[in-house]
């Protein structure tokens, strides 16, 4: 009987490992993409190419911080807001 329980446990472990592997792969890729997107936003900080105010900078930073806080909330609880809104 112990052989049967070992056989039934292996697929469950593989499924968990597979879910973990998928999470790690997606999390790494999406985090890299998010960092790249933030850096692209940072390129708007060229005053010779763009006209912006300190208020604009604060709004952009606040929006990004808010989304990071929502990300943390989604990762620790169920549910979360999926809409994206931003206006200067």
The count of DSSP E runs of length 2 or more, i.e. the number of strands, is 0
User: What share of the residues lie within helices?
Assistant: over 70%
What is the number of independent domains? 2
Query: Roughly how many Å is the radius of gyration?
Result: 21 Å
Main sheet record? none
Number of helices: 2
What is the average of the pLDDT values? 86
SSE string:
HH
Distance between the termini: 66 Å
Give the key terms:
mainly alpha; 88 residues; 0% strand
What is the topology?
Layout: H1 2-42, H2 54-76
Write up this protein:
The chain has 88 residues and is an all-alpha fold. The chain is elongated, with a radius of gyration of 21 Å. The termini are far apart. Helix content is 73%, strand content 0%. The model has no long low-confidence stretch (mean pLDDT 86). The protein has two domains: 1-50; 52-88. It is built from two helices and no strands. The protein has helices at 2-42, 54-76.
Give the gist of this structure.
The protein has 88 residues and is mainly alpha-helical.
């Amino acid at each position: 009987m112990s052989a049967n329980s070992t056989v039934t446990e292996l697929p469950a472990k593989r499924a968990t490992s597979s879910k973990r592997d998928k999470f790690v792969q997606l999390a790494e890729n999406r985090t890299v993409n998010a960092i790249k997107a933030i850096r692209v936003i940072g390129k708007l900080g060229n005053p010779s190419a763009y006209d912006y105010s300190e208020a604009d900078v604060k709004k952009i930073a606040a929006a990004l911080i808010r989304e990071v806080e929502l990300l943390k909330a989604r990762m620790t609880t169920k549910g979360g807001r999926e809409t994206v809104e931003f206006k200067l």
